[in-house]
Every structure is written in structure tokens, then in C-alpha cells.
Amino acid sequence: MSLTLVIEAITAIIVILVLSIVLIFNGLIAKRNRVQNAWAQIDVQLKRRYDLIPNLIETVKGYMTYEKGVLTDITKLRSAIVSGSVQERASANNMLSQTLKSLFAVVENYPDLKASESLKNLQQELEVTEDKISFVRTSYNDYVLSYNNAIQQFPGNVFAGVFGFKKSDFFEAPSEAKEPVKVDLNLQEGQKPQSPQPASQKNPKK
Global pTM? Predict the structure, then answer.
């Protein structure tokens, strides 16, 4: 084999390797961008939920005497859905969903509040927002799965560390946040309301 053919063969191999690296790199970039875009859509809905909560609190607090603990929990969870890691915000979002369900269950005990058009509109907007979060969460988690597989499987794993591609977190609730929230609605006058707690959380022994 002549020197010219050897040089051409080596050149062809180098070109193929470079093209392969470029294709792998661009593929990883595209997958990561899909994850980031899907997360941005979740973030928009979480912030919309965040903005709706103060109006909800203002609407119901004048009617509710013994359920202030529920309103306090909603206020705390409101702040948690727009800060922290993906997993922390997912957990707070799921706990907020459960606590809002508890709140709207309590509303049934207040006929005047239940008939409020303002509350009905807020409840509808919150439900629509939650549906949108659920929808975009599915897409986000699908993109995260595809991206994580790409950076963990060969040949992507060879380049992921070199180019700084890191694993993304799924937007899902820890097991304890998936369980229904218990709220004691059988409060007597003068009693303090109990804050909502996951069903799995047991009372500590005295």
C-alpha cells in the first residue's frame, strides 16, 4: 500500500471520527435543550399558580375561622414551588395540590363562600393550571429520560463528562408527597386547627 493511500485512509478515519463526535455532541445538545424548554413551560405554570394563591387566600380567609392552619400551609407551599431543586419544587407542588383539595373540601361547609363567583373563578383557574402542569410534566419527564439515557449509554457517556453534560432530575413527587393529605374538619369552637400532614406520617410517641 502506497503512502498516499495510507494518508487518505487515516484522513478518512479522522474525518469520520470528527463527524461522529459532532453528531453525538449536537444530539446531546438537542436533547438537553428539549429538557430545558419543557422545564421552562413547567416553570411558567408554577409561577402562575404562585400568583393565584394570594387571591385565593384573600377570598377565603374572611369566612374561615378554624381552618387557618390550612391557609398557613398553602402560603408556605406557595413559596416552595418557585425555589429549590426540581425535586423540591415537584414535592412542594404535589403537596400544594393535596392541600388545595383539602381547602376546597372545607369550603363545602361555608355556603356563602361556596357560592362566591370569585372563588369559583379562582378554583377553575387553579384547576386549569394544575392540568397544564400535569400535561407538560409528562413531556418534561419523557425528555429527561431520553437525555439521561443518551449521556449514560455508549458512546454518549464517553463525551458527556468531557463536555459537561449532567444528569437531569425528573419532575415527580417523592412517595410521601403522593399520599392524600389529612385535614381534621371536626373542630370545636376554641380548638386550634391541625396542619395537613401526609397520611404516612405517624404521630410521635410521647
Answer: 0.75
